Structures are given as C-alpha cells and as structure tokens.
What we know:
Elements: E1 3-7, E2 12-17, H1 22-31, E3 38-41, H2 48-60, E4 63-67, E5 70-74, H3 85-90, H4 97-105, E6 107-111, H5 124-132, E7 136-140, E8 143-147, E9 155-157, H6 163-173, E10 179-183, H7 189-200, E11 204-206, E12 212-216, E13 224-226, H8 232-245, E14 247-252, H9 260-268, E15 272-276, E16 279-284, E17 293-295, H10 307-315, E18 320-324, H11 334-340, E19 344-348, E20 351-355, E21 364-366, H12 370-382, E22 386-390, H13 393-396, H14 402-408, E23 412-416
Parallel strand pairs: 2-14, 3-13, 9-10, 17-18, 21-22
Antiparallel strand pairs: 1-22, 1-23, 3-5, 4-5, 6-8, 7-8, 10-12, 11-12, 14-16, 15-16, 18-20, 19-20
Helix pairs in contact: 1-2, 1-7, 4-6, 5-6, 6-7, 8-10, 8-12, 10-12
This protein binds uridine-diphosphate-N-acetylglucosamine.
Amino acid sequence: MDKYIIEGGRPLYGEVEIQSAKNAVLPLLAASVLTEERVVIRRCPRIADVLNMVQILGELGCKTGFEGDALIIDGADAANHEIPSALARELRSSVFLLGSVVARFGRARIAYPGGCDIGLRPVDLHLQGLRRLGVGVREEGGCIDCSCSGVRGAEIVLDCPSVGATENILLAAVTARGTTVIRNAAREPEIVDLQNFLNCMGGKIAGAGTSVIAVEGVRRLHGAEYTPLPDRIEAGTFLIAAAMCGGEIALRNAKSENLASLIHKLREISCKIHAKDDKIYIECGARRLSPKLVETSPYPGFPTDLQAPMTALACICEGSTVIVENLFETRFKHVPELIRMGADITVRGRSAFVRGVPRLHGADVCASDLRGGAALTLAAISAEGCSTVVDLGFVDRGYSDFEGKLRAAGARIRRVRV
Ligand code: UD1
C-alpha cells in the first residue's frame, strides 16, 4: 500500500473543489439496480468504495462505465441476485443492495458486510425493516439470504435512527405494494439526496430530512440523471485542516447548511468562516482556545465521521477538550498514533480527554480506518518536521486525490509506493 511523506508546518491557501458525497453516491448506486433503464450519476468520485460498488453492480449483470466524471449504469441485463462475498467484505455499503436487489429480483444473497473496523456494526435494524416489508430473511454460514414474492408496505419504527437501515428500507419500499412509513428515521442530508434521486426515477417519497418518511409504493422506476450532493465530511476535513495549519482557503461545491455543527464549533474557537452560494471561506490565524466539549450524535449533531479530525485539532489547541464518541465503540484508533506525534490524550471508554500542546512533531504513523487516516494526515501537515502516514488504502476509500488537493493549497505532501 502507498504512504504519504509529509513535511509539516505550512499554512494553507487557495481553493479546494469538494467531491460529491461518498455516503450519498453509494446508496444511489444501490438504487440504480431498481430500474432496467439507464442511470447517470454526474460528478461521481472515483474513490475506492465507489469503484468497489461499481464492480458489484457489474457482477449483478449491470453494464457500467465512466464518461468523463459521469458514471453510466445500464441495468437492462442485470439478472444475478448474489453479491460476491469478497466484494461485500470490502465495503459496508454493499448491504444496501439487499433492499434494491430483493425488490427487483425477489431474492438477494450477501455475505456479512465489511467496512472500517470502528466497533460492532450490526445490521439487525436493516433486517428487521426488511422483514416488516414481507421479506423472508435467513442468516446462515456468514451469509444473509432474502426472498419474497413481492415487497409490501408497512409501518416501521426504528430502535435508533440508523442511516443505513433507513436507506435500505427506502430502497425496498419504493416499489412495494402499498404505503410504508418509517418512524425514527435518520435525518442525514444523504437520505434527502436518496429520496430526491428515487423521486427523479418516479418514486413517491416524502419526509426525508425529518424523522418520519412516507413512501407510496410505485409499480416501476425509470432511468434518471442526477448530481449527488457535495461531501460534507470532505468539506469538514478541509475546514479542520485550515484550522490546524492556519491560512485562508475557500471550498467550492460545499453546502454550509449541512455543516452547521462543525462551523459552530470552529467559530467558537475563533476561526472566521462565511459562506456564499456554493462556497465556504475559512480564515484562521494563531493558535486557538480548545473547543472544550465535542460530542458526536446523529445529524444534525456533530458527525462521528469528523470526530477523528476534530480530535487532531484539539491536540494543538490551548486548554483541554473532552471528545465523546456516542455512535461507534472503537473509533479512537487514531489516538495512539497522535500520541506518537506528541499529543497528550487519555481515552476512557467512549471519551477522549485531550490536553492541548503547543505543536505536534513529525512521526511515522499508521492509518487504521478512513477518517482516522485523514486525521493523521492533517496532524502531519500541521506538525513540525517530517512524517510518514502508511496504509493509505483506508484514506482512498473516501477521499479522491486527498494529497493533490492539500498540495495545491500549499501542504508539502507526496504519495510514494511501498
Ligand atoms: C453511515 C455512514 C458512516 C457514518 C454513520 C453514522 C454511509 C455509507 N456510512 O454508516 O460514514 O459514520 O452513518 O453517521 O452512509 N446500528 C445498529 N443496528 C443496525 C444498524 C446500525 O445497532 O442495524 C447502530 C450502529 O452500530 C451505530 C449506529 O446504529 O452505533 C449508527 O449506525 P448507522 O447510522 O447505521 O451507520 P451506517 O449506516 O453504518
């Protein structure tokens, strides 16, 4: 796997183009199985998770290909209902295919999905939801087998607002007989994007973005052309990068309204941020006071996917910060690596206690999940001296040309093959 070699300590200046959201594109790709007609996803990022999902679509019998940055999916000949185990283990979002594949073919089979190792990631709510929709679900030999003779609408109350379960249920329910109501649904912007896309295909869904979503089943869906929403986690990563390194950057293709909780925290610690049209501008000077408390929670709370970068920022603030991770059990694997760079952090259960130091120093560190890898990269570009970050496969899952964008903003970072 590749590694970064980074010489830290330079401020960031310039403009960064934000990609379409990974977490929006993946469910849209699963949704494309629902039609025999052509689907075009414009501005589709070529990140590893997307490329893996495209490969799975190919295994199901869809024809796929890029034209420039648009991904074309033609599901006319799709016929296979088995998602290959090796690919399913590569990415967690493969589980979304259960909903759409069973809705189209009446059967779906998948190995338990993989993804980043950030704690137990059960799929019980996905399966409960599918069962409520009349899908027979059997779990045996590390595989999930779904079958039904027609999905039918139902009222579903989620025990917790799971993003993936909400999306999976939407995908199964959009062409079901009758009406489905999802209560305690997740409210993430990516769910609104999935609703909008399915409605472009002829679906009748309302309420996404609130905790009650109503789906009036339609008989069939047609093709569509769609531009997914900008990646709020990538945008947030660059805002935190500017807060750590200092300087002044503008993010193009960014939606500030989807980043309100982060922007609020950064303003509290005196970063100057303003937004206009599809741009967010950030300006940061000297070392700032610590954010005191950062607690992750479902949208619109502080996103768990920005917890690791925020922990890296807290390391070099003045004062102490308590970081509470409420969504995933073991999402602090970046902490021992930050400590190698001179950070002062103690983890107890779901909380990290960070005592700020004036600066981090360069070190050889190892990414062990996607956002943790991004956090270590930010720590390295803001640190004094030289660092290497290894195991970039994790970073490549979610960021397209991360190093190129940072380099264009003035960071000294290069990727080398090992
Ligand atoms: C999605 C995002 C991920 C993000 C997470 C939380 C995608 C592709 N990934 O993941 O980047 O970190 O939302 O914002 O969109 N849970 C259960 N049973 C289930 C499903 C979930 O107990 O069947 C629990 C999980 O263990 C976790 C919580 O619910 O504690 C939230 O998980 P969920 O919202 O489902 O996250 P993902 O969809 O996996």
